[in-house]
Structure formats: structure tokens, C-alpha cells
Amino acid sequence: MSNSETFKYDDKIVRNFAIATAIWGLVGMVVGLYIALQLIFPALNFTAETSFGRLRPLHTNAVIFAFVGNGIFMGVYYSLQRLLKARMFSDILSKFNFWGWQTIILLAAITLPLGITSSHEYAELEWPIDLLIALVWISFGINMFGTILKRRENHLYVAIWFYIATWVTVTVLHVFNNLVIPVSLTNSIPVFAGVQDALIQWWYGHNAVAFFLTTPYLGLMYYFLPKAANRPVYSYKLSIIHFWGLIFIYIWAGPHHLLYTSLPDWAQSLGTAFSIMLIAPSWGGMLNGLLTLRGAWDRVRTDPILKFMVVAISAYGMATLEGPLLSIKSINAISHFTDWTVAHVHVGTLGWNGMLTFGILYWIIPKLYRTKLHSLKLANTHFWIATLGTLFYTIPLYWAGWTQSLMWAQFEPDGFLTYGNFLETVTQIIPMYSMRAIGGTIYVIGVFIMAYNLWKTAKTGKVENTEVSFPPRVETIAHKGDYWHKWIERRPIQMLLVATVLVLIGGIVEVFPMLMIDKNVPKIASVQPYTPLELEGRDIYISEGCVGCHSQMIRPFRSETERYGDFSKSGEFIYDRPFLWGSKRTGPDLHRIGAKYPDSWHYNHMLDPTSMSPGSIMPAYPWLFKRKINTDYTAAKIRVLQTLNTPYGQNYADIAVQDLEKQAKKIADGLIAGGVDQEELETKQIIALIAYLQRLGTDAKANVIKE
Amino acid sequence: MKITKFKSTAILLVLCTLFIPFSLFAQSANNGSSVWIWALNNIFLVLAILVTLGFLGTIMKLIFDFIELQKLRLMKELGVEKEIVVEEMKAPLWKRIYEGAWNIVPIGEEKNIDLGHDYDGIRELDNKLPPWWLALMYGSIVFAAVYLYYYHWSSNDWSSIQEYEIAMEEAQVEKENYLLKQADGVNENTVTAKLDEASLLAGKDIYMTLCLPCHGAEGQGVVGPNLTDDYWIHGGSMPDIFKIIKYGAPEKGMISWNSQLKPSSMQNVASYIFSLKGTNPANPKAQEGELYVPSEVTENPTNSEEQKDNIN
Asked: How many CB atoms within 10 Å of residue B140?
């Protein structure tokens, strides 16, 4: 040990990320609780900025990218240094990573309530923030690889394989799902339209779950669980097989979010087939976690950290079994668009991500502050509260999802829908929504208890960067009898390349045919581009987050065509940038809402939904009646759409605003003739929104299409 | 000797999993009872139910495990030896199959499979892949291959649209069979006012939830016209009222209820509206449309092609 080098781990950056994790976790979950309450008490939608449609993406972004995101950085910065026996490559990059990420979160917290959104689920942030995300993420990658390259250990431990796969896949996903052409600083138009946009979004969306909520957390599990349990990892072979299996197969499963939609059947089937194959690799992680605890189960009953980890891993196992099951078409037909999906997601997030983060925080904070946990009893209380909260949250929502789905599809013997009025199916599940809010409250109380406990712990200690000694790395040559996989564990760059190739295969096979082969999206002659007023109305629809509660995708089911009209065809969406199919029906589908109700109905309904549908839980949108349509960028939008081959006439951009005003005047005149009394009505946002809603789904309705 | 036992369990499990997808093809050749035919026709549903049961079992097991752990803790506090309690919990009948399916090296022999890795104090063992897990993996790969073949290359291949068309045809047959037995086929040509108490009450119920927002609680008219006076935009006869409810008049703001209300319900609500005539509520909306004078003869309304276009 004479040639040992002495150096210090950067523990202060870990502490910063840990604090950010706890704080953003609280914020994100409180927002979640608030929107859960809005579903029961629509009066809680006070202003535009606090309405459900705008707050929902704030909740999802906060818990995914702020809570779990900081959790990832916390765990990676702590474990990476120790597993490689090296300080982080660059303190400047570490600091940039930390402050850059917090800036992104702040920007998200400001822009989302302002209605600045791209509407791609879990990728709502607009392009300037996307660029910042790319910059911070790449600097994190450089910092990680810099550390790996100057490591003192020869081999990379399994946790680091997961970190590498996470980094490269998130980079690829983030870039491709955010390919847009900017219109202004706060608005952009995606380069892909309709079905293609949908496929890319759910290739992203699904893998955001896979490579942001799953793989990095599996990496964390592989470090923190054996450390906390003081037990050897159960099976090295299982680590290898399930790691490579998981990252290769996961990327293919995206289309299972689009079953029975206008996505071509072959892509849907690939999504289903690969989702089924995901069960074993996912469960490999669960088994390796739970079996590592063999011989430590006596400690599980006293140690809250291990308890949290056990429940987290079990929740992971349940969610990754349920996910593939939900990818089977006959089950997806029931679950899709209902609260079943929401329940499923929360088993994963409250159970797996939440509980594992709590376990790690309880372990890491006393270590960082060189002290003991303030109260073991409070941590135990938190454990039981969190477990109960998760159950109280998910079970009512499962019930709500099943109930509503069955009600949607129930027919009378004479061929009528039993619940022809969509609202009946909503009113039925409001009690379940109340129970869910109670479950959420319980869970959030637990997090407050944890925050208090950790705060008290931190106050009694102090963070010092840990000093260690370790000899420099000597390149080792392969030993005879070494496991074959050792080869790549010594070669981080090769590992990065192999992982990249593996994750690209699934994406390429599914996405490229969709982009290249026209046959996948049969054209419909009568489908025309949106008028300027409809485009502005569409942007208002996007801003208000209508897509959070209303789908625009009628599936080919009798129960849906009976309720909404003819099922949606892929050719109807070729001018939809972004696509707005949605993933949840808290309200009815809107794809064929056009020309179904008169303008005056929409006018009154948006002003006060309960006036037209008594008992509706939809928020009112009074600001749309005061705010003016912004026509500053209308021409620019038309020009961008033209570069993307939307067939507007030459120089149409120059007269777009005139056209917009003409159409607005016509709608406003009609409303005034019908008794609406409002000044300058034709300049108000509500007119644009009505224009858009009245256009929806009407193009294909105009002529009978049978191919 | 131990190893062969593990291997045979593994092979058995793999075989079992393999047979599940193959039963898909038994569909046409099957001559068994109707339960089996049903199960084969709904093979995915059956599989899903089975796995859901397993899933619920896992949750139950987890809950019971935690109860056991609490019990152990209490026992220890009370001074009962842990080993005795653990011994009681064992299920010897399943133990051998169970252990074979896991193929775990006992904790006592762990030293023999320690790989000697040391990552910040973390060691790794060289346990074999659990045979049941391996079976699950191979089984799911076979399942996926069979699934793709079944839907896209075999003679059975069908699309979502075909599935839809089949469902619609079945529903049509069912509906016609039902209607043959029923007398509920009221339409605008045959409808008459039903003024008995039960029908009016049923009509009022519907009115109060669906019509009230636009026409007011007493039919006095709000956004929509007054329904109590003698002036009607689309005619005031019973068939006229029925027709406007059924097809709507979107240009005026009246929506079509054809897909939401069945004929008998539309008849009830039309009858209720019919009964409101001349009730003189407070704050009536001004007259709209033309004066309607009921003729003594039974009305024979004309079909309006224009309005039929508005059916969704």
C-alpha cells in the first residue's frame, strides 16, 4: 500500500442533491395532491395559472425530473465516486450539473403554469429549456465518464452499467422527441406530425419511465441495498443477463401506449410482444434485490431503511408485471384512458421510486453528516404511513378505472349505451377520487415527517468531504477462468458503444418504417390543413392542457363509435403538430366534437361547464373570454408549417391574419345573433378555441372513406 | 444428484410455459366442452386472469410476510426463540419443489460461490439463474414469437379493424333479435303522447337532467326557446317534438339526443314537454317561431331529409 494515493470524495455535492431531492419531492407531491383535490372540488381551479390542465404537467415534471432526477444525481454522485475510488472528474461540472438542474426545475415551475408547453407528455418544456436540459445532461455525462476514465478500480460494478445505459438512452430520447422548429421563444412546432409524432412521443414517454425511473434506480438499488443490508449481491450472472436484456427489450415497448389507436397494427404488435418479453428481465432486478436480503431478513423487521427498500423492490416487481399485462390488447382495451393507468403508474412512482428514495435518504443523510438518524421511531412511522398511503391511493383508483371502463362499454339489449351521457361515468367514480386524495394526503404527511427527521439529523452533524487512500489502477490482463463479461467491465467506452447500439435497434426498427413508408399513413383526400384561427385555437387548447383530460382518439370499438362517432384514421392527423391523442379521459373524447354542438353551447360551456352539463367537474375558463388572440406569430407559424410541407398557398402567411379575423368575425356574429352579449367578442381567445373545436374530426366526416 | 433434480424441475417448467402459447392453435381442432372453447377463444384474457391472480397472491404474500415479521418481533420481545417460530412456518410439502425452482446455494455454503469481487465493500455471489425465472424468460420469448406469428403471418391474421367489424356485426344481430321480441320501436312516424303518470314522471326525470340547462326548470326557456307557449320553431305536434329531440337542430343550438336516449325515453320526455303546454311559468321567454294550432286529425308528419344529415 506504499503507492496509495490520498484524495477526497466530493460529498458536499451529494448533500446538495439530497436536500434538493427532499424539497422537490415535497413540492411535487403537494402539487399532485392539489390536482387530486381539484378533481373533487372544481372550485379549486382559481386562475388560469392554477387550473388543472396546467398544473398536471407541473406535478408530473416535478416528481419525475425534480424529485427522482435529483435522487438519481444524489445516488450516482455518492456511489460512483466510491465504486471507482475516485473523486468526481470536475468540481465545476458537478456544480454546473447541480445549479443547472435546479434552474431547469425553476423554469419549468414558471413556464408550465403560464401555459408554455409543447404538450408532449413528460417532455412539455419548450425548446429553450430543452436546450438547457441537453447541456446539463451532457455535462453530467462528461463528468461521469471523466470519473470512470480516471478510476482506480479496474472493473465497473453493475450499478455503473445501469448509469451508463441511462445516460446514453436519455440523451437519444430527449433529442429525438424534442425535434422542433421554433416559432418564438415560447412556442415551437414539432417536425413530426400525427401518427409519427405519437409513435416518437410514446417511444420517448415509455422509455422515460424505463431509463429515468427504472434503470438509474436499479443502479442505485445495486449499490445502496447491499450496503444497507451488508450482504453480498445474490447473483452476478443474473445481473448480467437482466441488465442487457432489460436495456435491449425496453426500448421496443413504447407502442403499447398506442394499442387500438391509428398506429399501424404491426407496430402495436411489436409493442405487445416486447412488453411480454420484458417481464423476466424486470423481475431479474427484483429477484437480485430481494435475494440479496437473504440472511438479513431478521434485520428487515427492525431497520426502516431495509423495510423501505423491500417494499420499493416489491412495488417494482408488481408494476413491471402489471405493465406487460396492460400491454395485452384485450386488457389494454379496458385499462387505456382510465384511472387504471394512473393507479399503475403510482404503484411504480409512490412504491418503487418514492420508497427507494426514502430508504436511500435515511441511509445517506446520517452518513454524510457523520451522525445518527434523529429518530428511528419516526422513520418507522413514515414507513407505515407511506405503505398505507400507497395502498389508499392505488386501490380506489384501480376500482375507479374498472368501474368507469365497464360503464363506458355497457350496452342495453336494444343497442343503446347504458350510460350515453359521459358525465354519469364520471360522477360514479368521484367517491373513489376522494379516497385517492385521502391516500395521497397520508403519503404526503409521511414525506413531511421524513423531512423533519432528516432536518433534525442534519442539524446535529456536519458534512466533510471523506478522505480515502487507494492505490492507482494498474491495467490488468484477463485471468484464465475469468467470466467473459469481465472483458467489457474493464472497457467503459466499449460498454457505452454496445449499450448505444442495443438501444438504437428497437427505435430504428419501429420508427424508421413509420417515417419512410407512406403506406403506414393512408392519405384521406378531404383532410385539409387548419385555418389560421383554428391553429391559434389549437395552441390555446395545448396551453390550457386540455389534452390532460380529453383524448382525440376514437378506438375501433363499438362502445366508442356509438358514443363518439366513426373511429379515428391515421390519415386524419397528418397536419397535427403536435399530435393530441391524449392518454386519459377524465372528460369525453373530442376527436369528433366538431359540428356536434352549436357554437353557443361551447361558449356557455367554457364559461361555466355546469351550465351545460350539471355536475361536470371541468374547470371554467373565464380568462379565455377576456384575453385576446395573439396574432403576432400566426404568419410565422404558417411559414414554419409550410417548410414542413403543409400545403398552404404560396404567400398565404401574408394574408393569414386577415383570414383569421374574417373567420373570427363570422363566429362572433353568429354568437351575438344568438343572444351573446360581449364587446369585441371576435378578438377573444374563446372564438379561436370554438373554431378549433368545431373543426375537429369533421374533415373525414365530410366524405365516406372506405379503403 | 441435487443438480439433476433442479434441472428436471427447470425443464418441466419450461415445457409448461411452452405449451401455453401452443394451445392457441388448438382453437380450430378443439372438440372439447364449451368452457374450453371459450377459454381458447379468450386465451389472453385467461392468461391475464391467471397472472392477475398471481399478482394478487404476491401482494397477499407480502402483507402476510410483514405480519409474520411483526409476529417474530413480538415473539422475540416475549422471549420465544426465533428458531422455533421459524420452524413452525415451514411448509415441508412444497419445500423441495420450491427449492428446486430457486436453486439457491444455502447461506452456510456461500463462501464457495463468493466471486471475490469487492466494490466499495460490496461482494457478489455466483448463484445460478433461478430455473423458474429462466423458464419465464424463455417462455415469454416463445410467447412473443407465437404472438407475432399468430397476428401477422398465420392464416388467422387479423387487424384491429377486422376485430371491430366482427363486433359490430355481432351487435347488430343481437340488437335485431332483441327488437324482434320488443315493441319499443317508436319513431317519429308512430309516436304518440303518453300522458299516464309513470311516463310523465320518467320524462320529467330526463328533462330535469338534460333539458333544464337550456330550457329552464319549468320550460320557460333560457338559451333555448320557451316550451310552454303556443309558438314553435319546429312545430308543436307530438311527432314534431319527438323529431327535434331525436335529430336536433344544430344551427339553432339544439343537439341531437339520438345516441344518448332510447326511443321510449325520447317518447317520455317528449310527452312531458307536450304536457307543459299552457302552464304559464314565471319569467317566460318571448315567443319564437310560428303559432301552432293543433289539428284534430291524427298528424302525419313529413320526413325531413335535411335534418337527418345531422345524425352523428
From this structure: 24
A404 strand-pairing partners: none
Note the CATH number of domain B197-308.
1.10.760.10
- Enter the DSSP assignment of B196: S
A522 at B interface, C-beta within 8 A: no
Whether the Cβ atoms of residue A387 and residue A439 lie closer than 8 Å to each other: no
Q: Is the peptide bond before B284 cis (omega within 30 degrees of 0)?
A: no
Is A595's CB within 8 Å of B260's CB? no
Burial class (CB in 10 A: 0-12, 13-18, 19+), A408: buried
- pLDDT of residue B23 exceeding 70, the answer is no
Sign of CA dihedral B259, B265, B267, B269: negative
Which of A9, A160, A221, A236 is the mutation pick for testing B, counting most B CBs within 10 A? A236
Q: Which residues in chain B have their CB less than 8 angstroms from residue A297's CB?
A: 69
**A354 is written with which cell numbers?**
418514492
pLDDT band at B24; cut points 50, 70, 90: very low
Contact: A297, B69; criterion CB under 8 Å: yes
Residue A172 in grid coordinates = 437519444
Written as one letter, the residue type at B128 is K
- Which of B260, B146, B276 has the alpha carbon at shortest distance from B221? B276
Chain A residue with CA closest to B182: the answer is A414
CA dist B269 and B205 (Å) reads 8
Confidence at residue A1, expressed as pLDDT on a 0 to 100 scale: 47
C-alpha cell at A420: 350515453
From CA A442, how far away is CA A286, in angstroms rounded? 26
Distance (Å, rounded) from C-alpha A552 to C-alpha A555?
Answer: 10
pLDDT tens-place string over residues A437-482 = 999 999 999 999 999 999 999 999 999 999 999 999 887 777 777 7
pLDDT digits (tens, 9 = 90+) for B73-108: 777 777 766 565 555 555 555 676 777 788 888 888
Which helix (H) or strand (E) segment holds residue A134: the answer is helix A127-149
Phi, psi of A407 (to 5 degrees): -65, -40
**Chain A: residue whose CA lies nearest to B114:** A232
Sign of CA dihedral B229, B230, B233, B236: positive
Cβ contact, residue pair B123, A415, below 8 Å? no
| Domain parsing of chain A, residue ranges | 5-460+500-510, 532-702
CA distances from A648 to A640, A643, A645 (A): 11, 10, 8
Q: Any idea where the domains of chain B sit in the sequence?
A: 2-152, 197-308
In our burial notation (b when 16+ CB lie closer than 10 A, e otherwise), range A220-250 reads bbbbbbbbbbebbbbbbbbbbbbbbbbbbbb
C-alpha cell at A76: 450516482
C-alpha cell at A251: 426500448
Test mutation, B133, B165, B207, B258, chain A, max A CBs within 10 A: B133
CATH 1.10.760.10 fits A532-702, yes or no: yes
Whole-number pLDDT of residue B234: 87
For chain A, the average pLDDT equals 94
pLDDT higher than 50, residue B230: yes
Position B7 pLDDT exceeds 60: no
SS3 A103: helix
pLDDT tens-digit readout, A36-89 = 999 999 999 999 999 999 999 999 999 999 999 999 999 999 999 999 999 999
C-alpha cell, B252: 339553432
Q: Look up cell 438479513; give the residue.
A: A296
Do residues A165 and A130 make contact, with C-beta atoms less than 8 angstroms apart?
Answer: no
Could you tell me the pLDDT band of residue B26, with boundaries at 50, 70 and 90?
A: very low
In A166-216, DSSP assigns E strands to 180-184, 187-190
CATH (residue range A5-460+500-510): 1.20.210.10
Report whether pLDDT(B68) > 80. no
Residues found in chain A? 707
